[in-house]
């Protein structure tokens, strides 16, 4: 009787392998995540690589290693270049993750078209849409006669063949979860397939010195399918964020071997594709109500970029026994902490009130420097008194009610001054005489505690 082919069980969350099926992964603890897969034909071990005549590299002395600056190629979309750290690095593998329908394919098709026009042929391989569907989208985006090759294919080996044949200046694989390798018999999208496909594309990228963009789907929990396996393999991980009901989209770098992380690009979805927003502060403050209680403007810094956003708070008497607290765009735990500080250190009575906090425009902020703005918005709503409309604020709030210094104060002040704010309420520790000259038109008011800040703002 022929021996049954050997199979292994692979956790779809973390990639751990086991000989037996397990209800719970022993490595990451995920339930019901083990799927039966067949291992790849032939061992891909070091010994195997030597045996097949692969080139083995030798260790080099640090001093002998040539220093090479990465020459970068512009994607033709400024905001996208910024997130990538100044353009695409040839030979790099970039993963773009995001929810379905957020605009991943749109952005990459636009980048593909402009790079095809400026640099050379681009290969756009899609396992999700046919060539016709991509073309009808391309017509809206004005792709025109750029040398763009479309390939509706899910077989990895075929995609690799086309890369060798066309020798493109850029490769896009939309999406990595639809690609399967003939060497594996597990289903496309399973962790084994995703990892194999990403690794093979990495070799292709490095071997041919061509940048490769992968589109990745996110799971319901907001992480990429096969997250750990993929994020380790690629050079850069970008996330596409935004709300379906808002037209603006944010692309954020969460890992970048060739640039700064948490760098941010802001786009607006229009009828003709994504349009870069060079001045996001203007966009986020566009609908700000002046002289409305509960509205505060804070200066956040994302990566190297300062952004002014409006945070809104609504405090109203709770009609039920327990007060409700809701946070949109800021961390709910952080809100609870700030409310406790306001109650205990600034003498505000919020125990019987519902508190809702929202960052306008669907933007998400996770910097401690936003604390002071949130606290001011809540106090303003509670007292039903508006904050002065031309004041911007930033500063971290500590548990003792103190306002602590933060990083990149000059950058924030400059942005506030540029956007026409006449005063910045900020940590005393960050007041620096050199900053006074930056915002000559902008008054700098240093505060040491939440109480002092609220006295100044609400009188
Ligand atoms: P898409 O790029 O297909 O999303 P993803 O690849 O992330 O799943 O974006 C689809 C959405 O964008 C869809 O809801 C329609 C909208 N859209 C526009 O508003 N304008 C446009 O020019 C295009 C091409 C798409
Ligand atoms: Mg798509």
Describe the secondary-structure layout.
Blueprint: E1 8-11, E2 17-18, E3 34-37, H1 46-51, H2 78-84, E4 93-98, H3 104-118, E5 122-126, H4 131-141, E6 148-152, H5 156-166, E7 170-174, H6 191-208, E8 212-217, H7 227-233, E9 236-241, E10 248-256, E11 264-270, E12 273-276, H8 280-285, E13 295-302, E14 305-317, E15 325-328, H9 332-345, E16 353-359, H10 371-383, E17 391-393, E18 396-397, E19 403-404, H11 409-418, E20 423-427, H12 433-438, E21 443-447, H13 450-458
Parallel strand pairs: 4-8, 4-9, 5-6, 5-7, 7-8, 13-17, 15-16, 17-20, 20-21
Antiparallel strand pairs: 1-2, 1-3, 9-10, 10-11, 11-12, 13-14, 14-16, 18-19
Bound molecules: thymidine-5'-diphosphate and magnesium ion.
